[in-house]
Amino acid sequence: AFILAAAGLVIVGYVGTSKFNSVLYLSLSVGFSGMAMAGFNINHIDLAPQYAGILMGITNSVATIPGIIGPLIAKTIAHKPMGSEEDYQSMYKEEPVEIR
Question: What is the model's pTM?
Answer without folding.
Answer: 0.52
